[in-house]
Amino acid sequence: MPTPTPTPTPTPISIRVARTLHDLTDVIAVRSIVYVEEQHCPLREEFDGNDVAGSTHLLATLDEEAAGVLRIRWFADFAKVERVAVRRRYRGGMVSKALLQSAFSLAEDKGYRRMLLHIEPSLVEYYLRYGFQPRQGRPRFHYSDREYMEVVKELMPASDAISMDSPALCVVRPEGAWREAGVLDLSSARGIAQRGGVCDEVWKDAEGRSGIGEKAQE
Q1: What is the pTM of this model?
Q2: Which fold would CATH assign to domain 14-178?
């Protein structure tokens, strides 16, 4: 009797905030494949000037291979999801689901209550699954040769969402990693360095050594 072929274990999808140049290169590559190559979006319209200022990019990977991306822009009372893109070989819904759920969590950790998204009308049913609803009374519009409509999702801010009353070192941690000690948390263990004041005297001894402030007595 032949030995049954074991069912392969699905590779877990990893989602992270793009923080490095390598991550951003992956973001650009995925969007170039999906939007510029497949959907024929002009390059200057796909990379529209909103990718550096005020944006957070989420990167989905499987076995360290870039599979999908999503961009979030932050406004005063809402967050806007944009540029959801998944490479063809990884399509099927799981990558986009993981990206969207990570975007919801990130926005809720920042205290947001609403998330806006522009979608093609043919995708309404898909986004209804994730709690988005069409905005009533808002007209459809078009750009980059495609028609769009607005949908919005109500969010539930996290009980420990970032605020001005959060611990100071929590606020300076990397985007999306506020519950983990960051590099500045570790630096605080060194204490406060003794630094010279702006009016302290600069000294130099006969052996070429120099310093600021009071010279040590030999």
Answers
A1: 0.82
A2: Aminopeptidase (3.40.630)
